[in-house]
Amino acid sequence: MFQRTKICSGLLLAFGGTLLSVAPGAFAQDTTVQRVEITGSSIKRVDAETSVPVTVITADELKKAGVTSVEQAIQQVSAVQVQQTSAQAVGAGTGGGSYADIRGLGYNKTLVLLNGRRIANSAFTASAPDLNTIPFAAVERVEVLRDGASALYGTDAIAGVINFITRKDYRGGTITLGVDAPQHPGGAQHEAQIGFGAGDLDKDGLNIYGFVGFQQQQSVAAGQRHFAPHAVTSSTTFPATVFYGQAGGGAGKGIGYTPFAGPAGCTDPTLVVSSDIRCGEDTATFVDYIPASQRLSGLLSSSFKINSNNTFKLEAFVAHSLVKAKIAPVPYAPVFIDPSSPYYPGAGITPLPAGAVLDPDQVDAAPGSLFSRAGDGTLNEGRMVTRFRDLVNGYREDDNSTNQGRFMASLEGTVGDWDYDVAVTLNTTHTQDLLVHGYSDEDLLATADLNPNSATYGYYVLNPAINPFGAQSAAGAAVLHNAVKEGIVQFGDGTVKDVDGHASRDLGDWLHAGRPAAIAIGGEYRDEKFLNRANTEYAAQVEASTGIDPNTYNAGKRQVYAGYAELNVPILKTLDVTAAVRYDHYSDFGSTTNPKFGFRFQPAKAILLRGSYSTGFRAPSLYELNAAQAYTNSDSGVSDPVNCGKNAAGQPVALNGFNLNDVCSYLAKTFPAPNDKDTNAIQFIDKTGGNTHLQAEKSKNATFGLVLEPINNLTTEFDFYDILITKEVGVLPDSYLYSPAGYAAFPGNFHYTAGGSLSQNPQSCPNCGYVDALNQNIGSVRTNGVDVAIGYKANAGALGRFNFELQSTWVHSYKYQLFQGGGYTQNVGIYSQGNGEPVFRWQHNATIDWNLDPFSLGLAIHHKSSYVDFTPTRNVSAYTTEDLYGTYAMSKGFSFTVGVKNLSDRNPPYTNYTGKFQQGYDPRYTDPTGRTYYARGTYSF
């Protein structure tokens, strides 16, 4: 599958990736004279010199293997450690985007290009383009540069570059229809692609072509797969769980009870037994493992020959992506049920456990507690704490839609000895989050208690018509249904205007090495804007069921100027060296200059050495710089580093005259009365959001490669890489920031009140005591490893032709800091709490193909190694799947492909990671679909 161009004895460029992907016969000569440009360089070269420093995957190979989208295509590259897929749109508020991540360094450090030029970043994150919006039907091949390339492309290219190359000068027509049919329920796919083209550019002086592609993906619901135990449950249930106190109970006391439960009463399919009298809601049963989606894209290109040396081109592509994400019904917790409700537990309709005794002080106005001791002086209405989930209105569903477009006019050709290419480009993107099912306005279901003397002051009291424990009356159903609200809750827009150009030429054989030196120069101007905001009026109505701040407003803009140069000089017949440098100026944070040096040495026909060293950078995204700042609750369980200390016995003590429970968090009773709380989990106030003082992330990249052809048709590659990133943009974790060490390192982040305290109520801000938790330049990351590629071709004559290819990545080390000056944490083969993901020690994709015209067969094997789980008491098993496919190429332009994905029907390995709405497996690395049969038919004319 992984086709690679030839390494020849002519000039090969070491700069711009230098990790050359090599196919069998790589050292043979090629004598054609067409000059082309390769990913990773601005110098045009003849075909005899075009061994590109990238992994190349063709669209034909992808289609044979059943790949139907750009998202799936990137999963074929072993250097891609992790990928945010459409499945992760479930409950994430990311607009349904899909992003690639080379080396596991973050998708904002992988540059994505279309025909060598940028496209607009996602309007929700402003950090990387959404892969779903790339017109897969028009893609001819994908080139993946596995090395830093800031010296040519500028920002975001720290980890590498993924360049999607579309067809050129296409003539004729093509129609493709395809279907994927999983063996298990759900997950079916249908696709259609149509292409056309007319005109011979060389003969007619004109060529026009276009491609349109459509794909529809059915959802895979959690209930359609049974490999993942749903061990994570919620105490917010239906029937609702109520908490009642007992006379004389201490603060924080309360007994959870689900009416009608009993020892075997959790009979609803979405409930699980938590205790003899209490159920838990299995929220994962409502979630789609794979969301339903639709993608429609089109590309139209026209080229006009001005004269024999110059061509004018107009190109436009538009794409629409829709991802439908489902999650569990809205939880309302805590909400209080009033004694006036006919459904009040113990009042006749809703039972209480035998012998239950209600606390006369059922609730408490004290901060952080819903239960009290008698005699606190507050007005007690006898209301009970209830945790109610709205199953009447059912699951929540978002329609995340993105519309992307690019419009480009370019001029390319030759003037004298110079090859040139200049273009003007407009990129636009619009994303919106449309709530279509199950979201409600809490103000229409419950009433806020605004009596400051009430024990439930500031909390919501449930409408007495609603039965949180069972079937609804007509009045209760009407209240619930009338509260449903549908609409656009948030949207985003992004625009990138770009003017760029570069030119290259030969300079002559300076050192009599048998090949000319070559130079390229180029420049770029870019104007970027983005806006992400909530639909304020509507968002305020559904805030309780979405968690989206109705005042969200993130906007930013900037201008970028850049200039670069590249020089390649053959020193000897066997040695070339390359140097390049790029200068970038950003209107919002300053300037940066990044060089790159590379070499290529071929001492013998069957041996090639190559290497490079470069620096790189990533400019802070417009979102990281300009996200709206807000005052929010910190993580629970932190302590005031100034006013909370420890005594000689290691027990928490209050300092400076403060009350212990106002400044110290603790998890168990470690001291005697009168401090009668068993636990105390404090949340202070963090100030979060963008930071206009961010600096660029910096990187140093080094590579060294060895290519061998020990026998004819067998090529082996070993490419070593080492990457150091400093000044990573991120947020200091509260667990560190509120520690004594965090305070000592960042005292300027703490803003105490005049009385020397930190506040706990965000509503008192900005005149409050708070802690800066804004985006900032924090720690460093260092990773190294080796990419291995093996290719072997054999011609068995009448038995056909065989081809074996292995593409593999082995990570030796991946260490990161949470903050500057802190210790490094190893992430290889280990799920990292700080990094939020594992780094796989070993990944590979291997293919074996047999071809005997008009038949071909292929087998692909994909492997990810095991790792220590989220809870480090167990390992997540290795994940290996196999795909089998075959093609029959009939005469008159018709071909038919059938195949089986996940031939062994392997389930994703179990993990106790709970960071996504899907439970029991990790959707970032695995596919829950199971064995899938597919068929593709193509007619070309």
From TrEMBL:
It is a multi-pass membrane protein. It is found in: Cell outer membrane. Residues 49-161 form the TonB-dependent receptor plug domain. InterPro entries: Beta-barrel_TonB (IPR000531), Beta-barrel_TonB_sf (IPR036942), Plug_dom (IPR012910), Plug_dom_sf (IPR037066), TonB-dep_rcpt-like (IPR039426). Keywords: Cell outer membrane, Membrane, Receptor, Signal, TonB box, Transmembrane, Transmembrane beta strand, Transport. Residues 392-903 form the TonB-dependent receptor-like beta-barrel domain. Residues 1-28 form the signal peptide. Its main location: membrane. One of its GO terms (cellular component) is cell outer membrane. Belongs to the TonB-dependent receptor family. This is TonB-dependent receptor.
